[in-house]
Amino acid sequence: xxxxxxxxxxxxxxxxxxxxxxxxxxxxxxxxxxxxxxxxxxxxxxxxxxxxxxxxxxxxxxxxxxxxxxxxxxxxxxxxxxxxxxxxxxxxxxxxxxxxxxxxxxxxxxxxxxxxxxxxxxxxxxxxxxxx
Length: 132
Prior knowledge:
By secondary structure, this protein is an alpha+beta fold. Helices cover about 30% and strands about 35% of the residues. A four-stranded antiparallel β-sheet has the order 4-1-6-7, with no helix packed on it. The protein has a four-stranded antiparallel β-sheet with strand order 3-2-5-8, with no helix packed on it. A hairpin with a 5-residue loop joins strand 2 and strand 3 (about 75-85).
């Protein structure tokens, strides 16, 4: 009876060690994975270092409510509030932009500043890249 209990305890210990090894390897693998999906990285990073972004948006207020950027008829690239000093740049050929409060952000289109909106005013516009 004592030998059977000892064998069972050894098997249980081996099972626990196996689970710990598998869990540790899974954790390390997930930490090595890049945080941004490839599609998002391509949306935010330029293809050429000298190229100006199609649109660049910088939050100049404490909070910039709901800033939406999307590819017309396609992916939504951003749909969220922004915080002071936060900025995003996108390099797609054409983008639809919606600003819930146009006075809270500074927008640059193809390297040129866009006129600041009025406080509380909602603005929706399309930006086309230089080659589009």
